[in-house]
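Study this fold:
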Amino acid sequence: MKKNYLRRNKWNILLFIFYGLLLLWLYRENHFSITEADKSYHLNLLTINSIFVGFLFTSLGIMAGFADKKIIASLDKAGYMDNYYNSIYTGLFFHVISTVLSALGVTIEFFTNNEYVLIAQQVTLIGGILFFVKAVWNIFKIIGKIRRSL
C-alpha cells in the first residue's frame, strides 16, 4: 500500500525535494534578506496569495466535475488521481499559510516587521507557486485524457 502511494505521488515528492533544494540555495545566496516591510508589502502578498488560492480551488472544482467521467472514475478507484489532488492540496496549504501570515502582517504590528514572518511568507509563497504550476499541468493532462476517451 505505502509503495503504491509513493509511486503514484513520485512527481509530488520530487517537486517537494526540488523545493527544499531551491530554498536551501536561496538561503545560502541570501535571497531571503527582507528585514523591513510595511503593511503594503503584506497587503500585496495577501492579494497574490488570494488569487492563487482562488485558482487552486477552481482547479479542485474542475477535478470534482470530472469525477463522473468513466476514465477518471476508474483512475480514481485505482488510486492514480491522488497525484493530481495532492498537488492541489499542497499548493492550497502553502498559499493559505502565506495568506494567514500576510493578513497578520497587515493587522498586527508584531507580524509586520518580524524577520521570521517575512521569510515564512516568502518560503510558503514559493512552495505554493511551484505546486500551483504542477496543478495546472495536471489539469491539462486530465483534460487531454478525457478528450482522448470521448
Q: What stands out?
A: The first helix runs from residue 2 to 8. DSSP finds seven helices and no strands in the chain. The mean pLDDT is 88. The two ends are 32 Å apart (CA to CA).
